[in-house]
Amino acid sequence: MPAEGYRLEITPSSVTLDVADAAGEFYGRQTLRQLAGPSWFRSVPGGPSTVPCGVVVDHPRFAWRGCLLDVARHFRTKAEVLRFIDLLAAHKLNVLHLHLTDDQGWRIEIPEFPRLTSVGGWRTGSMVGRHDGPERDGRPHGGFYTLDDLREIVAYAGLRAVTVVPEIDIPGHARAAIAAYPELGPDPSAQWEVWTSWGISTSLLNTSESTVDFFKAVFDQLLEIFPSEMIGIGGDEVPGATAEHGLFVRKIIAHLESRGRRALCWDEVLEIPDLPKVTISSWRNSEAGAIAAAAGHDVVMCPEQHVYLDHRQSDHPDEPIPVGFVRTLEDVYAYDPALPGILGTQAQVWSEHLDTARRVDYAAFPRLSAFAEVAWSPVEGRDFAEFLPRLRDHHLPRLDALGVEYRPLDGPHPWQTRPGVPGRPI
């Protein structure tokens, strides 16, 4: 049967599971857990259950069924990441794209460069909401993962058929690294700080050979921890980038290839001349994915207009920190990557405005549940009117059992609102 597939047969006297591989076994067991009822999603499952007899033959539509979790803007503890992996696995999603570095924080220990975490791992405060003023909350924020933490995260995910794809963002979104080592930046004599704002910083890495060597060493450390074939290198939102920055990116791509890995890049890298074959995350629009595929690149579809789960879920004034497009549960369920030959699709959970695990729950669920069905099941016959009662009557009780503080279908609970915190709706 196809990769990750399984055949589950339930008779009055037995349950038989035939599988294509270890992932197929895991997913077959997840289906059996679904049939057994919500109590089987608790840490201590309920008593004996009655499950319906029948045969389930199943396999995923896409090989890459991912979700990005941004731990750079707001750090999530190791325990919170492990919990998020459990939630992905329960939805048969198989890639955790871990965004480890950005202007607002550096989250991975690199023993050769300790200031990346001692300096770059924390900031003096954060913008609350989204505005153009100088106001900050004045609350220090930080944290990072040790190498042993990350080894544990990778192993934990692997047992749940989830691949962790790390990302170190270059040559933009690098203010935290520049604050730690000013010689990496455009002006080594300047006093840099980890950024306390949201948006796009104009502070890019310089393109000297010493900076290239610095990041080769960083990525070498990364490769010792993460066995993923794909390694994220960013490449997005680089105002003022020069041809030398494009060459810098190509050198890192070549370095990863020399180590037997492949670069995962945001779609802006398509503007770099002589770009070698990479995997493109098509985020700006769906057209970027089509252009990448036509040029021979592998493609993961994750367009902002459809699958950015930090964007607001309605235009009601109670929606907390209303940023981005309105993307309802029905909108996410209606999305179809619809590009032949792509690796798959991915939802994004950016965390500028998600400062707690509770806020991540609210933004991600139940929209990520709808996205999981988009990524797994054929598009033929998909009907929101059929999906909604399944979600409401069967799946939301599973999320309740898992302790997920999802957004209710009719709007936020009072304690999920953020009155008076400005957003930036589109």
From TrEMBL:
Its EC number is 3.2.1.52. Coiled coil: none annotated. Keywords: Glycosidase, Hydrolase. SUPFAM superfamilies: (Trans)glycosidases (SSF51445), beta-N-acetylhexosaminidase-like domain (SSF55545). GO terms for molecular function: beta-N-acetylhexosaminidase activity. The keyword Hydrolase applies. Residues 1-59 form the Beta-hexosaminidase bacterial type N-terminal domain. Pfam families: Glyco_hydro_20 (PF00728), Glyco_hydro_20b (PF02838). Belongs to the glycosyl hydrolase 20 family. This is beta-N-acetylhexosaminidase. It comes from Amycolatopsis xylanica.
